[in-house]
């Protein structure tokens, strides 16, 4: 007995979609050079590592991964610095990059803009 043609087409479409999305995602990950950090979970990222006291959790992570680390909060990549020298490097010497970032709600309410 032959399977229905719509079933064969659906399976072929899903297989080709998975193949091509794997190629494009693999290329994208190779292009991005992030600092070291813990491996994220698929949907929640590294939010499970941030406890009720985030500053202590980030301090423990910085002891493991160094003063500059990469985390994912949900689907958002986050670069965390935990040393004054590294923060000065970002905010003083690379200020043009951060000045062009769009304003979000958290930044609006914490900086009184």
From TrEMBL:
Name the Pfam families on file. Answer: p450
Where are the bilayer-spanning segments?
A: 6-25
Kindly list the GO molecular function terms attached to this UniProt entry.
heme binding; iron ion binding; monooxygenase activity; oxidoreductase activity, acting on paired donors, with incorporation or reduction of molecular oxygen
Q: Which cofactor does it need?
A: heme
What keywords are assigned to this protein?
Answer: Heme, Iron, Membrane, Metal-binding, Monooxygenase, Oxidoreductase, Transmembrane, Transmembrane helix
Quote the InterPro entries the UniProt record gives: Cyt_P450, Cyt_P450_sf
Origin superkingdom: Eukaryota
Give the matching SUPFAM superfamilies.
Cytochrome P450
Q: Which family does it belong to?
A: Belongs to the cytochrome P450 family.
Any idea what this protein is called?
Uncharacterized protein
Q: Which organism is it from?
A: Hibiscus syriacus (Rose of Sharon)
């Amino acid at each position: 007995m032959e399977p229905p043609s719509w079933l064969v087409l659906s399976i072929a479409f899903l297989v080709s979609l998975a193949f091509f999305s794997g190629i494009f995602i693999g290329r994208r990950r190779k292009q991005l050079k992030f600092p070291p950090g813990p491996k994220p979970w698929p949907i929640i990222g590294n939010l499970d590592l941030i406890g009720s006291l985030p500053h202590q959790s980030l301090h423990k992570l910085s002891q493991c991964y160094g003063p500059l680390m990469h985390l994912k909060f949900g689907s958002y990549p986050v670069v965390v610095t935990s040393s004054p020298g590294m923060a000065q490097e970002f905010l003083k010497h690379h200020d043009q990059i951060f000045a062009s970032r769009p304003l979000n709600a958290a930044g609006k309410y914490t900086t009184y803009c």
